[in-house]
Automatic annotation (TrEMBL), chain B:
Entry keywords, A to Z: Membrane, Transmembrane, Transmembrane helix, Transport
Keyword Transport among UniProt keywords: yes
InterPro entries: Cation/H_exchanger_TM (IPR006153), Na+/solute_symporter_sf (IPR038770)
Membrane topology, from the record: Multi-pass membrane protein
Signal peptide interval: none
Species this chain originates from: Actinophytocola gossypii
Record-given protein name: Cation:proton antiporter
Cation/H+ exchanger transmembrane domain sequence ranges: 24-371
Ranges that cross the membrane: 6-26, 33-51, 57-78, 90-113, 119-138, 150-176, 182-203, 215-233, 293-313, 325-347, 353-376
Subcellular location: Membrane
Family classification: Belongs to the monovalent cation:proton antiporter 2 (CPA2) transporter (TC 2.A.37) family.
Major subcellular location class: membrane
UniProt-listed PANTHER family: CONSERVED INTEGRAL MEMBRANE TRANSPORT PROTEIN-RELATED, SODIUM/HYDROGEN EXCHANGER FAMILY/TRKA DOMAIN PROTEIN
Amino acid sequence: MVGSGPGRPHLGKKRGIRVVYAHVVNVEVTPLPGIGTRQDFVSRTGRRIGVITYRDGKFELIISKKDDPDACTASIPLSPDEAGALAGLLGAPQLVAELSEANSGLSGVHTKQLPLVPGSPYDGRTLGDTQLRTRTAVSVVAVVRAGTVHPSPRPDFVFGGGDLLITVGTKDGLAKAADVLDRG
Amino acid sequence: MHHTTVALIELGAIFFGLGVLGRVAWKIGISPIPFYLLGGLAFGSGGLIPLEGIDEFTTLASEIGVILLLLLLGLEYSAAELVTGMRRSWVAGLLDIVLNAAPGAVVAIMLGWGPVGALAMAGVTYISSSGIIAKVLGDLGRLGNRETPVILSILVFEDLAMAIYLPILTAVLAGATLLGGLTAIGISLVVVTLVLVLALRFGRYVSALVDSPDPEVFLLRVLGAALLVAGVAQQLQVSAAVGAFLLGIAISGSTAENATRMLEPLRDLFAAMFFVVFGLNTDPATIPPVLGAAVLLAVVTTATKFATGWWAAKRQGIARMGRARTGAALVARGEFSIVIAGLAVGANAVDPQLAALSTAYVLVMAIFGPLAARLVEPAMRLASTRLRRTATA
């Protein structure tokens, strides 16, 4: 197997010590001759999660079985769009974490991801229409849509149902903003 | 009726019949190869319906089938994959050779087929069917499993072993002496090394020779190159199949992938013809006398392949269930066993019964292999609960 360098997940080690960023994810890359490559890592809970990339470019999401970590409980074929969407869904917390990190020096400033549910009053309308900045003093710093991050959306950015808004503001402002997006 | 009319009707009936059989085979989850062989047995010499007037075409088509089977086997793995595969799995690969070639050789000797027959049968029982195995692993969703790289690396090693074995077999079949045989081994080792170096260092140039952005031109070039190399190899007494195989190894990268995609349907068509012709040329009446030997070989080589896989997976730290899956997955034999038997019988250097034994053996193994891969998990679970029950009782 390749790629078992430093930073392998320390399962069950360092017990009792709370290290926030202790879990470095080590992705293992294994060639599958004649088929493609398998890239996976072992999650903290001991499940193997990864992706098979076929030589012709197809993807498959794999998740290992609970009782037999060698085997897979699911291997789900994903189209590039679907893979991108999934990456976006899973990548948003990471983006928020990075922003929070960046803003952590400023007291009272919080970062939150607010979903724009389909059927929201602003589904199909622009960022300018929400008047979020004026009404709640909250800034939308990025929009995650179908796996793609649109940073710093302009006031004419048109929202769609299912968008994830990465917002920065005060605690109260963010609560108000969530209401605005839900009810108009 | 006009000659061509009869030929067209006969060919059409054969292909259509094979299509129906293939559909049935995949539906019940086994390889269509045994069905093709049975189809061939049913017709032709000693069969139910003799086919006439299409011998010339079917013979040539089956030759092309062998060439395409071997060309695609060569294309399947890149030279880099072959080299790393050999480095990583040579111990398991050698065990695989010893355990699985021996039963075939021993049975051939016992049947009095001499050293040449033993060499051919050793190949027949040794080589797993990478086609069947890859399909079964995909169907069962096991490509993401941890033991799958172990299975694939053994297949890669077998692939390389074929590159050395086939030229030797061809030389021996052509009636080479001991010295001639040793020379053949030397030459084939040198040629395989040269082709690997060529593919690793200058693969781009070989690929560029056949590559073209236009699919039509590309198809014609690849097929033309394969038949040319195969023909020249045949002329040099190295066997057409080996030439095509080495060409397949030399073509690399995206060219190889495109060539595989383009040639797969052609290979399936001509390979089906090859299996049918092999069945056609085998008289069904010769099978019952060797049936016992075939079943014995099937039982023994199922056990030896299973042991090979189990051991190889254990070395990689795979748990018991995964080891069992590795062993069972490798059991299937198929297309390449028939290719080897075809080479041997075609050269008229071995007992014609070898064809009957190989047919019966592959019939059993191509059906049982995928079944074994499917049934191994429930079987293991059953065995472990039984064990636990006897332990507590």
